[in-house]
Amino acid sequence: MSNIDQKSEVHLHEVVDITTYSDEHDTPSSSTGNRQQTKGVHSPHPPPGVANPLAIGFSAFSICSFVFGLYNSGLVTDIPQVAVGVSAGVGGLGQLYASIGCFIIGETFPAVTFFTYSGFFFTFAIMFSLPSGFIEAATAGGSIDPLNKCMALVQAAFAICSFLYLLGTLRQPYMIQLLMLLVFLTFLTGSIGQFIDIHGLIVASGWLSFGIAVVAW
Hints:
globular; 0% strand; mainly alpha
């Protein structure tokens, strides 16, 4: 082989080696850059934290308890319609939402309690709304005694539930125990007061309702 052919062969090998090195060196970095770019484009946002539905439930319960305290104690007015809007729009909806939220995060006991008391506030709002016709039917005989008996019956049912829930909070923090005790006493005094027509017990249930609002807040 001549010197010219040997030089051409050496030159050819150098070109091949350089090309191979370039391909082997650039390909990983290029694909890495592409992966980083793709990862940056398609990277999802970090998931938001799970909110605590108890805050909504306690807030709704406290607001409604405050208004019911004003109504039952007679400090401002004793017209039940003053609590209808708050019962449906805040107490009923707020605690129903809190109940669903507690079920989602696996908190069964607060979910059941919030659902129970949302039912009370919805019941009160429906009974004392004009389209329901409850007031006209209960006072058709010219006396409010049937009306009081109906409300006493409803409060007695929720007093029983509240007592059972109170037993379920004996291992809970003291503030939860105090709250459930006040709820039970509020329904109990209100029910007895309207069953046997003792106005003082109805007023006492109003002041206990104020206590519920303070503790829940």
